[in-house]
Structure formats: C-alpha cells, structure tokens
UniProtKB/TrEMBL annotation:
<dbReference type="InterPro" id="IPR006855">
    <property type="entry name" value="Vertebrate-like_GNAT_dom"/>
</dbReference>
<dbReference type="InterPro" id="IPR036393">
    <property type="entry name" value="AceGlu_kinase-like_sf"/>
</dbReference>
<dbReference type="Pfam" id="PF04768">
    <property type="entry name" value="NAT"/>
</dbReference>
<dbReference type="InterPro" id="IPR011242">
    <property type="entry name" value="ArgB_GNAT"/>
</dbReference>
<keyword id="KW-0808">Transferase</keyword>
<feature type="domain" description="N-acetyltransferase">
    <location>
        <begin position="214"/>
        <end position="367"/>
    </location>
</feature>
<dbReference type="GO" id="GO:0003942">
    <property type="term" value="F:N-acetyl-gamma-glutamyl-phosphate reductase activity"/>
</dbReference>
<dbReference type="InterPro" id="IPR001048">
    <property type="entry name" value="Asp/Glu/Uridylate_kinase"/>
</dbReference>
<dbReference type="GO" id="GO:0006526">
    <property type="term" value="P:L-arginine biosynthetic process"/>
</dbReference>
<dbReference type="GO" id="GO:0003991">
    <property type="term" value="F:acetylglutamate kinase activity"/>
</dbReference>
<protein>
    <recommendedName>
        <fullName>N-acetyltransferase domain-containing protein</fullName>
    </recommendedName>
</protein>
<dbReference type="GO" id="GO:0005759">
    <property type="term" value="C:mitochondrial matrix"/>
</dbReference>
<dbReference type="Pfam" id="PF00696">
    <property type="entry name" value="AA_kinase"/>
</dbReference>
Length: 370
C-alpha cells in the first residue's frame, strides 16, 4: 500500500500510530484490497478450495473524522453471509473495509476487524499470520505458548514486553476475555498454516487464557476432599482404588508437599521436596483429564512447579499416550522395565540424581526423601 501511495504522490500521514485515510488514500486502499482478494480467491480456487467473496460484514462510525478522516470504529458485525458460506462448504473471504452510517466506506485496521469478527463468531481458534512466525522473548527465542491467566503478570515484567509485542499481547488478552475459555489465538508464519490447523503440534506462538493454578501445602487447604480423591484415582502413580487414594492422602498429613491444581481439579500434581539424603524434589502424583491436556492446563501446572522447584524428578509409564510431552519438558531421562524416569534442572551425572536413579531401578518409581 505504501508503494502505491508513493507512486500516486500521496505522502503517508500518521496520528497516534494510526494512518490518516483521506479520500485518495481510501480509493487506492480499496482498489488494492479488492485486487488482492481476487488474487487470493483465484489462487485458492486453483487448488480446489471453494471460496466466496463477502462484502458488507462490518458497519462502523468515524473514529475521529477531523483527525483520521475515513478511518472507522466497528459498531456492528454482520455474520449471516459468513455463516451461510461456511454451512454451504465455502471459505468466506473478506476485507477490513467497513460501511459507515452515511454510506461512505471506512478503513479499519485488519487486526481490529479480525478481533471483532472473532467476538461475533466465538471460534475455537483465531490464527494471525505473521512474517516473524510468532512472538519472541528478549533472547530472540520464539515463545511457543502463553497461558495469560497464569503468566501475564510475570511476562509484563520481562524486557521484551514493550512496543508491538506488549500491544499485541494485551489486545489478545482483551479478545480472549470475550471468547469461550476453550478458545485460543495462534500467531504463525503463513507457511505453517497447514501444520497449525491439521496437526496436534501446532506452530508459532499459541496464546490462551488457561486456568489460574491453585496451590496447597496441607490437606486442610483443600475445600473438597471428595473431589481431591476423585481426581487422584487413576493418577500416574497407580492410585487406582479408593483405598490406595485414602492411604496416599493419609501419608500427606505427615509430610511436606506442594499440590498444584485447577478449580475444577481436572489436573492435579503433587510434589514432595527433597531432604538431607535425597535432595531432589519428586513429582509423586500426577492426574489429568483429556480436557486438561487439550486446554493446556498441564502446561500451567508445570510452569507453576518450575517456579517453586528448580530441580525435579518423576516417572511415567512407557505406554503413556503423552510421553512425548514429558520428554519435551525434561532435561534427561532413563528407561527401565516399562517405566521412564524424567528429570530437569540437573545433569545426568550429578550426585543429586544418584539416589533417585537407584530407587527407580529398584522400584520403578522416583521416591521422595523421607
């Protein structure tokens, strides 16, 4: 757009970071958007994708006519044509142009238009395409995911939380608050779109509200013991009967521990700290529902555990369907007789790991310090 404006002798003007859209700029922008949409539709059609061009989705008022001229603030999103296209098997394609109350076309920021459309449709996922392929931290390392309820306060204190990154995260936070809690936002490179939509691994940066993780260090802090018992049945440590759960809970009355869980107790992890002889903390019980995995709650729980325990060991059955997830969150592992010992925060040859490894060989478990 900037190149076309320059060729037409129009000097771009910005007020408060927003492009001033005069009549000539609006005409050039509209022509460009329509041409690019047509090219996009033609390309998709050539690949066998049924598409439908949609117009008139957005209504808007002038954001500030004296300051930005033909720039609009969306007041209404008409979803009927979009939903009709989807039901008929067509991919709807639209621009961020809006219709003003006086009949004039108004220019609207594309990210803002996408967010307003999402608020109207309540989708499971919103995907933003970016040449950078995601958000990056201060070490220029891509951030794979952010669970905002748990991490926003921490992230807001990081050096990289400024300028465009800060604005994008806060805008996404505002959007997700208006969507179902199961919704998420992904920021990916265009080449990763297929991977994001059709595989479990995804790409880029995935942002969710997640669930704020609760923490307890004594049995008396749990408001509902029966819900705790129900959550522990079938945990990673073989608590498969009510009797075994009762025995485990009774043992917690006498020992130090930290329990991490969500309000609904779809996920719960119990960590026992190290001691004089065995200094590593051990994840003694881990239980989660399918929903807990899909919603990213387990990621929240592991983030909370890492903040409290810089080193940790735990065991998982080799047949666990989420084994790859545990490998990704560990610094190393050992395999023996159908069980896998994972650890993070230490090296394979560290003295701290020796007693944990010896117990693992004897019992197939990581045994916490007495």
């Amino acid at each position: 757009l900037n190149s076309l404006l320059e060729a037409a002798g129009v000097e771009p003007q910005f007020e408060g970071g927003i492009r001033v859209t005069d009549a000539k700029t609006l005409g050039i922008a509209r022509k460009l958007f329509l041409e690019e949409n047509a090219r996009f539709i033609e390309r998709l059609d050539s690949l066998g994708v049924a598409t439908r061009a949609i117009q008139g989705t957005f209504r808007a008022t002038y954001l500030d006519k004296e300051k930005w001229q033909y720039v609009g603030k969306i007041t209404e999103v008409r979803t009927q044509a979009i939903e009709s296209s989807i039901r008929a098997g067509y991919v709807p394609i639209l621009t961020s142009m809006a219709e003003g109350d006086d009949g004039h076309l108004l220019n609207v920021n594309a990210d803002v238009a996408a967010a307003e459309l999402a608020r109207a449709l309540k989708p499971l996922k919103v995907v933003y395409l970016s040449e950078k392929g995601g958000l990056f931290n201060g070490e220029d390392k891509k951030i794979s995911q952010i669970n905002l309820d748990e991490e926003l306060e921490t992230i807001s204190r990081q050096p990289f939380f400024k300028f465009g990154t800060r604005l994008k995260i806060l805008e996404i936070h505002d959007l997700l608050k208006d969507l179902p809690r199961s919704s998420s936002v992904a920021i990916i490179h265009p080449s990763d779109l297929e991977k994001e939509l059709f595989t479990d691994s995804g790409a880029g940066t995935l942002i969710r509200l997640g669930d704020r993780i609760q923490k307890a260090t004594s049995i008396s802090e749990f408001k509902d013991i029966e819900k705790l018992k129900a959550a522990l049945v079938g945990s990673s440590q073989g608590l498969d009967t009510e009797a075994s759960v009762d025995t485990f809970i009774n043992s917690l009355e006498e020992k130090k521990f930290s329990a991490y869980y969500d309000d609904a107790m779809q996920c719960i992890a119990i960590v026992k700290p190290g001691g004089a002889k065995q200094t590593m903390a051990v994840l003694t019980s881990l239980s989660t529902t399918k929903s807990g995995w899909l919603s990213g709650m387990m990621d929240n729980i592991f983030t909370a555990i890492k903040q409290d325990y810089p080193t940790l060991a735990w065991t998982v059955d080799e047949r666990d369907e989420n084994l790859a997830w545990f490998f990704e969150r560990s610094d190393g592992s050992f395999h023996n007789d159908g069980r896998v010992l994972f650890y993070y925060g230490t090296s394979m040859r560290s003295d701290a790991l020796v007693p944990v490894y010896e117990d693992f060989l004897k019992s197939g478990q990581a045994t916490p310090s007495e």
